[in-house]
Amino acid sequence: MAMIAGLSDAQAVLRANISPRAAHIERLESFVEGTQYRGMPDWFEADVQLWKKAPCISYPIVKSAIDSNTDLVLADGRFPAFTTHPDEDDSIFDDAGLNTEDSAVMDRLLAGISKQVRFKSACREIFSSAQGAGSGVAMFGVRAEKLFMDSTKARWCVPTFAHDGSVDTLEISYPYLEEFRDESGKWRVSAKLYRRVIDSQLDTTFLPADANTSGIQPIWKRDPLQTFEHGFGFCPVVWYAFMRGCSAVNKFDGQAIHTNYLDEVRALDMALSQRHRAALYAGDPQWTEIGVEQGYTPTGKARGMAMPATAAGGVASASNPVTSGYRDTSRVTQGRKKSPGDVWQYEAPDAKVTLHTLPGDALTAIDNHARDLRIKLAESLAVVFLDEEHVSSRGAVLSGRALEALKSRQLDRCDQYRSDVGDKLILPSLDMLLRVTKKSIESGRPLRLAGISKAFPILKRFDIADEAA
Amino acid sequence: MWLSPAITLRWPDYFKPDSDDDAKIVKTAIDAHEAKLITKRAAVQKIQRTFGIENVDQFLLALDEEAAERKTNAPAFTAPTPQDNAPPPVALPITPQGAATK
User: Fold this and answer.
1) pLDDT on residue B96
2) Chain A closest CA to B58's CA: distance in Å?
3) Within 10 Å of residue A21's Cβ, how many Cβ atoms?
4) Residue A168: per-residue pLDDT
5) What is the pTM of this model?
6) Mean pLDDT, range A42-46, rounded to an integer
7) A400, A414, A426 member nearest B18 (Cβ)
8) Are A431 and B58 a contacting pair at CB < 8 A?
9) Which residues, 6 or more positions from A98, have their beta carbon under 8 angstroms from its beta carbon?
10) Domain total in chain A
11) Which of A138, A166, A140 is nearest to A152 (CA)?
12) Nearest CA of chain B to the CA of A162: how many Å?
């Protein structure tokens, strides 16, 4: 890739077409993926200031925290059950309320929809990416006579919202590099733009266009093969701003869990990289000899390293004999034998031979520093990592109550995440799937879904316009 | 305009209690109900997760039906016979030789 023609120009064009918001989210995501130091000088580079180097260890603490939160909030066995309460007759006090029989039908429909769109894994995926990027997006529709629930990267998306907070339009656009052969057959690369717009009637994908350094948008042409009219009358998209809280009117993204801790993550990686380098450099025992003539060897000369060559290559055997070999003759004069039978003997009476090994506490200071940073980061991210030694000191198996006590800090935070993801992703997505189901059946679009014939009359009751008609 | 149906989420415990925890929950529910501190419904709600009871109302109905069935199938009450009032047989000690002595 580095040698391909036009790469540096194409990368410049690519960068010119990435918005500051997309660049910010991309940076946040790089801390999850462990690619945040890409492009910085190597850690073992000698002539670079320490702080300007890329740590050689990129500890995935943010990803671990996200995975742990997702496991606790939405893993199998922890995913919330959803119901319209077949045990309660809501029709008594609410005209649009469901009686017990209708609720049972709706619950069966919800179960069928959830299975068809792989609802749990889709929610897990969106919840995970929203923790790392600040936002997640869910798109719904009917494909091949089945409901679907898709997602894409939030940094590629720009939503607009209606007064009630629902998504009005969603634009997905991003620049990308495309390799191609020019007229002479040589591989080249250029920057292209992708664009797709979903609104209340259409899902429009445009033909890829050439990107330019000015960032000015090209004249877009619809791709007829990838454009279709869904005709729902609403934009089938749910925007999930993770733990958004209170923010400016033009801010529609949530807050990634590590937004304010990027420096601390880097500090931890630096500490771990320092420890790693110190262990490598000083961990290999080193001999020193004082009072010994330069080049003196206390044993017989050692043979240089030899690499036998075999008839068929690989390891020598009876059927694959050694035919020749390669011998390293460059270090024969400096090599010395090292084995239990080879005693090193010195003629000089004042010769002093020392083997320098790493003292037991040599890395303690940097190790403690790294541990301290990890603890502080875990506290900031409100995550509790149960290290092996932590668990084993309490016995092989921890009871549920013991685990709850140990992870109480994270569980308190996960209670907030449950409310957030429940109210802003799971319930709106279920609602959107019911709306898409209803509209699809209504418009005569084929949809294979168990229990839909019984549920359709009930679904119609939730559309006031239908009732008025 | 679309009126969203009322869907409720039920979040489970983060960690499943072990058998000891379950035993304590069941015992607490029984003790409190027997002491007439809580209703039967409250007791069932307390043990709902332990036994995977989905619908408390249906479960209470099923309990009542079972109780009624047991009552129906129980043997009818009959007056005690003179034999019923006889003292229970006394076990006789066994001698080393195996013969019973009085």
Assistant:
1) 52
2) 8
3) 15
4) 97
5) 0.79
6) 93
7) A400
8) no
9) A84, A85, A90, A91, A106, A458, B5, B6
10) 1
11) A138
12) 13
Flag whether pLDDT at A147 surpasses 70.
yes
Cβ atoms of A179 and A192 within 8 Å: the answer is: no
Check pLDDT > 50 for residue B7.
Answer: yes
Report if residue A267 sits inside a domain: no
| Residue A158, token pair as written in the block | 């720009």
The span from the CA of A109 to the CA of A451, in Å, is 6
> Which of B8, B11, B17 has its CB closest to that of A83?
B8
Q: How near does any CA of chain A get to the CA of B63, in Å?
A: 17
Q: How many angstroms separate the Cα of B91 from the Cα of each of A447, B87, B88, B95, B101?
A: 79, 12, 9, 13, 10
> A223 with A205: CB under 8 angstroms?
yes
* A78 is a domain residue: yes
Decide: B15 and A404 in contact? Cβ < 8 Å. yes
Residue A464 with chain B: CB contacts under 8 Å? 1-3
Between residues A401 and A19, the one the model is more confident about: A19
The H or E element containing residue A290 is strand A286-290
Contacts of A403 in chain B (CB under 8 A): 14-15
> A411, B21: Cβ pair inside 8 Å?
no
| A81, A96, A463 member nearest B10 (Cβ) | A81
Q: Per-residue pLDDT for B100 more than 60?
A: no
- Contact predicate A123/A426, CB 8 Å: yes
Question: What one-character-per-residue DSSP string does A416-464 give?
Answer: HHHHHHIIIIIHHHHHHHHHHHHHHHHTT-----TTHHHHHHHHHTTBH
Q: Tell me which residue range forms the domain holding A41.
A: 7-257+410-459
| Model pLDDT, residue B102 | 38
Distance, in Å, from the CA atom of A118 to the CA atom of B10, rounded to the nearest integer, reads 19
Domain presence at residue A284: no
The pLDDT tens digits for A428-444 are 999 999 999 999 999 99
d(CA B49, CA B17): 10
Identity of the amino acid at A315: V
A78 to chain B, any CB pair closer than 8 A? The answer is yes
* Amino acid identity at A202: L
| Residue A187 identity | W
pLDDT tens per residue, range A102-145: 998 999 999 999 999 999 999 999 999 999 999 999 999 999 99
Question: For residues B5 and A434, is the Cβ–Cβ distance under 8 A?
Answer: yes
Write down the mean pLDDT value for chain A: 90
The sign of the dihedral angle between the CA atoms of A346, A348, A349, A355 is: negative
Asked whether residue A233 carries a pLDDT value surpassing 60, the answer given is yes
Q: Where are the domains of chain B?
A: 19-72
Q: Is residue A94 part of a domain?
A: yes
